[in-house]
Design goal:
ten-stranded antiparallel β-sheet; single chain; mainly beta; 1 helix
């Protein structure tokens, strides 16, 4: 048993990194800061492309264990998937009879902030890869404690 532990330690010190045959690469990585702190890593994709009324949409669903709800983000990329035409982000945390609502978007007040970097878009396979920085505002029901801050920030690599 000790010999196996020593061999594992020696192997961990090497420069070569090899994934085990059944290991999955990270397809979605998210970091939340603000009223809650969380780091999420998943082998499952959290972003996909879809079409509605001739426009391409990037749709993201980022799991957030701290609030027991996903952050849903929709980016209207227009007919050519070349730029963000409009966007929205929403997550709701139920607390007793109240709620904490994390909201932002091009039509929201307050608007929040979005910075999108697209690395690849494959319209034929409806896959999209890149990163997103998002600031949402925290809206609370009367008598509900959602934390000290007014905003929640999210960085996601997808």
């Amino acid at each position: 048993m000790k010999r196996l532990a020593i061999l594992m330690l020696i192997a961990a010190c090497g420069d070569d990194v090899t994934l085990a045959p059944d290991a999955q690469p990270i397809a979605c990585a998210a970091t939340f800061h603000g009223n809650f702190e969380e780091l999420t890593r998943s082998p499952d994709r959290c972003a996909r492309l879809d079409t509605h009324d001739g426009d391409w949409f990037a749709e993201l669903a980022i799991p957030a264990r701290a609030i027991d709800a996903p952050f849903t983000i929709e980016l209207d990329l227009g007919p050519s998937a070349a730029s963000v035409v409009s966007w929205s982000a929403l997550a709701t945390q139920r607390i007793g009879n109240g709620a904490c609502i994390y909201r932002a978007g091009s039509d929201a007040t307050p608007r929040g902030a979005l910075e999108l970097t697209l690395d690849t878009i494959a319209l034929d396979t409806r896959t999209i890869h890149g990163s997103l920085d998002l600031t949402t505002y925290v809206l609370t029901s009367p008598g509900t404690d959602c934390g000290d801050g007014d905003t929640e920030t999210l960085h996601v690599d997808f």
